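Please annotate this fold before class:
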Amino acid sequence: MTTGEALARAFADEWGRVVAALVRTTGDWSLAEDAAQEAFATAATAWERDGVPRRPGAWLTTVARNRALDRLRRGAVERSVLATRAAGMTEGGEVDPIEPDDVPDDRLRLIFTCCHPALGLEARVALTLRTLCGLSVEEIAHALGASEAATAKRLVRAKQKIQRAGIPYRVPSGAALPERLGAVLAVLYLLFTEGYAPSGGEAVVRPDLAAEAIRLTEVLARLMPDEPEVLALLALERFQDSRRDARTGPDGALVPLEEQDRSRWSAPSIAAGEAALAAAERLAARPGFQLRQARIAALHARARTTGRPDRAAIAAEYAALRSLSASPHLALAHAVAVGLADGPDAGLALLDGLPDAPLGAALPAARADLLRRADRRAEAAESYRRALGAVRSGPERAFLERRLRETGG
């Protein structure tokens, strides 16, 4: 493994851990991110010279803590405010014991702190994706369907509000726990999605990121065992993760769902998804947003043995989901599902009413696929060209280029 590959792997695995540990010890979100960035920059040189350490995460955390301590020593204002918190930090990177919360995981504490009700929903999601996952402002803006400038301002304001309001860094208890649940579930699913289908870069999947989202969802399910939406999200992630290996062909290219080798879908992951879904169904008084999404994922997963998903049932679940959310991404998914169930023209009619701006390459790509199915090749080629002008992911670009060639474009 090259130094560059080791750094990329460490970033995916350790960024959230390093930042979360520094937020706990310093209480300063910006300082935590800056020190983590400096640690990774230092690693680029040190690992090339000395080799990759046996425990990259511990190395990065130690360096980041030392950088944070240096910053505190140099800053008179920060020293006066944060001296007590910094007192436990040593040159060796050790930290004095801290009273544990109910869930001994800094990253889960970080998620719940980011999802405090004093912050707007998009600010909660953006802040967690930045601090926990290390996503860039551009990647977060793409995930939220917002501009980069607006996303950057939202991140700054959110950090300032947490520090001014003294929002505690812990997993809440009692009545405070359920009121933050919706935002936490949104964050966990976006984290999973960024691992399962990265919004940028050259990787078809980032399995460690997806696994981390599943692990945190499992922790949350143990914390809230009677909450059906948590179990439904766990089911959704398990169903989708079952297809992870099949999303990549022998040449490393992206393989769309209908072309995947179903024998490569993970039967244990599907079984785990079915168990979580059944538990969620037993607990739910009425289907919530996550439960309906899990039902859709289950209908796809069952095609491993049936050979074909129930497309009419999938379209019906999407229609029900639209009554719970006005998301343009959800409207796009519904249109595609209708196009597969009732014919391409039915789906295209629904796509025509959707706005371009928040959907990026997804809208012209979906339109191109339905036009291809309708054998309207020239129009499909034009839509593929439009999608290629907006796509950010290398594997998606290669897939769209392949489809464009197939249409004769």
Observations:
- The mean pLDDT is 86.
- The radius of gyration is 22 Å.
